[in-house]
Amino acid sequence: MKKIIIYTIIMVTIASMSVAGDWPIYKGNLFFTGNNDEIIVSNNQLKWLFLAKDRVFNPVVSDGRIYFVDKNAFVYCIDEDSGNIIWLNDVRSISSQFKAYSKSAGKIKYPLVYGNTVIVSDPIAIYAFDKRTGNVIWARTGLRVDETKPQGLTGITTQISIDGIYADPIIDQDTIYYGTRKIFASRDIKNGHIIWENKDIATYSGFPVYYDQYIITQSMNYETKTFTVFCLEQRTGKVVWQRNFN
Length: 246
What we know:
- By secondary structure, the protein is mostly beta strands.
- A hairpin with a 5-residue loop joins β5 and β6.
- It has one helix at residues 91-95, and strands at 5-10, 46-52, 56-62, 65-70, 74-79, 85-90, 112-114, 117-121, 125-130, 136-147, 158-163, 165-172, 175-180, 184-188, 194-198, 209-211, 214-221, 226-233, 239-245.
- It starts with a strand and ends with a strand.
- The protein has 2 domains: 1-162, Beta Barrel (Thrombin, subunit H), CATH 2.40.10.480; 164-246, Thrombin, subunit H (Beta Barrel), CATH 2.40.10.480.
- The chain is globular.
- The strands form 5 sheets. Strands 7-8-9-10-11 form a 5-stranded antiparallel β-sheet.
């Protein structure tokens, strides 16, 4: 039996955003304030309660709706004023078509909001939902095809696998930036198509940030135990500079 918890919405715990508010990065902005409209509520009186299926994480607000995920990979959209559910989506039902090629472990991450799109990621893929209806716009994985070494009479064969998503997505100027253990990449938010890839970067836990026309992200070489910070051109993914830390 699934554990049912009471998810208590108290107005001081949610960072409300103004008209068409975006939430393109963890905590909403580069200062990690969790408050994009700078409005502080006047009291902490309980307005409503919502029963989720299980433990929930990181609610964000956009255009009068609240978006959050639970640990069973459900994405919720509820009404900010009433607490009534508007739509609910099971991410695992979408990711199941990719799971056979993935060995990555981990949990679903916090939602991002950009325009009319909600972006969610897990170890397998990045998912784009219409924030009004919950319909899936697209889902993309780090699909990879490798050639094996020659093996007897069978020769060289190909092997399909999916790289796990380690550097959580961020969004800027209609573009999503994120990293796997093999690459750092950017995708068009409208269709999920790859814009560029940088194969010199092997990301791990955390998320990149953007500043001006640059992307700053981390990389780790597990063989040499070398950590590197990269500064990339936002438009092309080319390395501007890098610094190693042992």
